[in-house]
Design a protein that fits this description.
Length: about 450
């Protein structure tokens, strides 16, 4: 009995030690699990932080690029790439080892634009010169976590002449008879929609206004619904492509209370406008409220050269001789970018732009008969045209007139109000050459005077 008790001594200690080892293993495992979870959670937090920083950097790039095209509107590749130095600085715990903004053509080459159709957004369906720009951003935390993002954006330069009506100021439709309008409509001001009472104004394409859409007030502030103001007719707007074309399938009349404002352009916003614009008219009628609330997507489509001194109509004016074709205004003028140019001028020299081919034989003077005596410019300055036949009485061509019966005491065509001009045409510039018809007046097959002379040049 005594020996048996002695043999069991120490068993409890061994069991206790084994249990302690087991519990220690559990404790170490739990500790390692907690540390791992903390480390993983911390890494995940840092990664999320870096991801949000990279996303913020990407949005800043996009905003800066959009702001540049709003202010400069036609920046060079170098100016676009200069945005790479404007990385975020609001969080000192994040650095940006990569922060690049660059067109796909590079920073030193001229911008490359691809002509194509806009696939989404308020300008969907329009054709534009599309400039792809690549944005790259990498955000790095102090502990080494790094997240990189890449985005490709497309800047669309929309030619203005594909609009049926493009207005930089307010645009007013009102008090007209029946009118069908097939083109797209945009205004950078307010859009007034009306037509004479009992008549119908029908649009075939989308309408957009950077300002507001006004339905029940005329442009001069009168009540469009009043009978005396004659502006309460039906205005039909499509809700789908070709919706209002003959045999309309998706054409909706806009009610007098469905404008974006309740009355005039400075009145309160219409609470139902969001539904009217986006649902009733399927975004075929949108506004921008000048960037304010309640807008439905219209943008300010400013021409790149418009500023305090240069107006939109300069796009169709002839460029002056001293203007560079590479300047902001020069590169926007239709005269510099058209493939076929039809030039009309008072003088021959004014026909020729900076890229003229130097051949004056292509210049046509809009005159019926060459003067009997050419000026020093030679035959190149006086172009043959329709000859004035003798004995046929007064003849008018290109606004010209001549006397069939010359007399020192008789005015052409017996019209006492006709003033005999002192000079005749035939030179590049009026040269103060006296008109030498018989008795100071013109006669058939001798000389004639173009009341509205001019020159024509067609270039391809």
């Amino acid at each position: 009995m005594h020996s048996a008790k002695c043999g069991s001594r120490g068993f409890t200690l061994v069991a206790s030690l084994l249990l302690l080892v087991l519990l220690s293993g559990f404790a170490l495992g739990l500790l390692m699990m907690v540390n791992t979870e903390q480390r993983v959670g911390g890494n995940d937090l840092q990664n999320n932080y870096a991801a949000r920083a990279a996303e913020g950097a990407m949005e800043k790039m996009t905003s800066d690029l959009g702001g540049m095209f709003k202010t400069i509107q036609a920046p060079s590749a170098t100016q676009i790439c200069a945005l790479s130095g404007q990385y975020p600085t609001w969080d000192t715990t994040v650095s940006y080892p990569v922060y690049n903004v660059a067109p796909i053509s590079g920073c030193s080459a001229p911008l490359v634009a691809v002509y194509g159709q806009i696939q989404a957004g308020p300008n969907q369906g329009l054709y534009a010169q599309i400039i792809p720009v690549t944005l790259n951003a990498s955000a790095q935390r102090g502990t080494g976590e790094t997240v990189s993002m890449t985005r490709t954006v497309e800047v669309a330069l929309i030619p203005v002449f594909q609009f049926g009506v493009f207005s930089d100021a307010d645009l007013y439709f009102g008090s007209s008879p029946n009118l069908t309008f097939a083109g797209r409509v945009h205004t950078n001001g307010d859009l007034y929609l009306g037509v004479a009472t009992g008549s119908t104004l029908t649009f075939y394409d989308k309408l957009s206004a950077w300002g507001n859409v006004v339905r029940n007030i005329t442009q001069n502030g009168l009540d469009a619904t009043a009978a005396a103001n004659n502006d309460a007719g039906t205005v039909d707007i499509p809700t789908a492509s070709n919706g209002c074309t003959p045999a309309p399938t998706a054409c909706q009349a806009i009610a007098m209370n469905q404008g974006s404002v309740v009355n005039g352009p400075t009145s309160a916003q219409n609470g139902t406008w969001q539904n009217t614009s986006k649902s009733v008219f399927n975004s075929y009628l949108i506004d921008g409220n000048y960037g304010g609330p309640n807008a439905t997507g219209a943008t300010n489509m400013a021409l790149p050269f418009v500023n305090g001194t240069t107006q939109p109509f300069q796009i169709i004016r002839r460029p002056p001789a001293i203007e560079s074709t590479g300047s902001l205004l020069g590169s926007s003028r239709e005269g510099n970018i058209a493939q076929i140019r039809v030039m009309l001028s008072d003088t021959q020299a004014a026909l020729h732009l900076s890229d003229w081919n130097g051949d004056p034989t292509q210049d046509i003077e809009l005159a019926s008969q060459v003067p009997t005596v050419l000026l020093a410019g030679g035959s190149g300055w006086a172009q043959p045209g329709v000859q004035v036949p003798a004995g046929t009485g007064p003849f008018y061509n290109f606004g010209e007139a001549w006397c069939g019966v010359p007399s020192a005491s008789r005015v052409c065509n017996k019209d006492a109000n006709l003033l005999q001009p002192p000079f005749f045409h035939g030179a590049a510039f009026p040269a103060n050459t006296a008109f030498t018809g018989a008795g100071g007046y013109g006669s058939a097959n001798v000389a004639e005077w173009p009341i509205n002379d001019g020159w024509l040049l067609v270039e391809v």
